[in-house]
# Entry
Amino acid sequence: MRLFILLYMIALFVLHQDFWLKDDASLLFGFLPASLAYHMAYTVLAAFGWLLVVKFAWPKFADEPTDDGGEAK
Amino acid sequence: MIQTFIVIGYLCLLLGLGYLSSRFFRGSSNDYFVASRSIGPVVLFMSIFGTTMTAFALIGSTGESYRVGIGTYGKIASWSTLIHTACFFLIGLPLWSLGKRNGFHTQIEFFRARFESSKFGYVLFPILIGLIIPYLLIGLMGAGSAMQGVTRGAFPELFPETNGAIPAWLTSLVIAGVVLYYIFAGGVRSAAWANTFQTIVFMIMGFLAFYMISTKLGGLEAASAMADAEKAVRAGNIGELQFFSYFLIPLSVGMFPHLFQNCLTAKSSKTFRLTFVAHPIAIMLTWIPCILIGLWATGAVMPDGVTKIVPDGTNPNSVLGIMVGKLTSPVIGGLVTAGILAAIMSSLDSQFVAVGTMFTKDIVVHSFGADKFSEKQMLWIARGFVTTIVVVTYLFTLVEPRQVFSLGIWCFSGFAGLFPLVFAAVYWKRATKAGAYASVIGGALTWFLLFQASGYGANRSFLIGGAMPVVFIFLACAVSMIVVSLLTKTPSKETMEKFFPAKS
# Structure
């Protein structure tokens, strides 16, 4: 699952460059420019990616108990 | 005039909130600086999100969308949905864990311990303060511009020189005073509470403004049909390499001192989970209305069908204020302006607290020893330094103003350029003290030379070979860190064990 999440995040990084929409002036639903709509969908996919991280790739060190910590030494 | 009274009412509400949170203040510096590490998931999310959304996100994004079109969302907001959370995950979470285990309150305490250098803070501190001043400047300038745009014509006898609008210098002064009051009252806890409240306010008001403006323009479709079609695409407005190289800008959150401090307030690691998932969505909900309002402003006309609502040549900082002022009712205009100020103040407060904490912990206490000062004296030292920085920043707002978006990008480029420092500190055992010094000096020097070459931000289209300057600042910092670390002595075994404990 961790490998899938990593590949998913890399794919998102690559897919950010929506060069095929850079001069597409069409309006989705009559008001939303194509590239803007694409990046809204991208945002939802990014949030989903982070949900996967929280559910399946939470680091072990983060769950380790720690003391309250004093002043910095 | 109604707008002004609504804004005054809102500011009074904030003063009340500051007073209320001061009743919970435990009086200790630990409570003032990191809220006794007791903040839960909702407040942490609101606090971190509110802190990252500043005048840059509302006024700057609307102005930039007006100037270069809808690609503004992709180049900053969309990258941020991926990169911000990556920073919280890869940097924020490990630093929270190390901070809690070792009692760190500031970034510099962490770096000093990690790089075994007591003097490192004296190099990093002025650089961080130097970078945070433009960030504060964005907030104060943004507040002034928004209020001036909305109140145009309201007080013709009182402020004839600004066409009856409340002058920017007055709004900046009042906003700085209100934020200073409530953070002085309760420190980072006050800031977190105020952030939560203000984040809710600015998101609701953003939607309200969006709804009112689109309705007034004849609906969503009519509003977009009026817009300049050339601004509805990226081609011709933002180059491909420029668009791509913007991905480095959101790395700045990994080096923001105020976000480091926000992370330290978390009760447990699980507290971060909500932030990870909700932060990207919240960015979208905040930015999209602003981007569309900016786009519509490029072609929106008054009912006569001829007069442009935003005249050609308008300062991009004023676009949101003008659209709100001209296309909503006075009451809605007042509420939306309060929302804009909420977004600005929800960043300023965390930054003020971080600046005071760094000075107290990293300079004063580190130089003279913690036993030289009582808890009360430490709080007053923090407050005194914050006030000094705010006064200096305020004086900067009185000189020639810069575009909020452009100044913000330079500020973020400086912090993002230093990202290799924190990344190496957390993940690269071989990173050394000399490497850390070299990376900070290399990054800061490159930033300054490029900032100077851009006319101190006056050239809004300053690129190098089509790429953002941040690429070169980042490379200077990273290469200096790698080369110098490989040529110098590795950190001690004790430090290795402290920062890279063996996995059980």
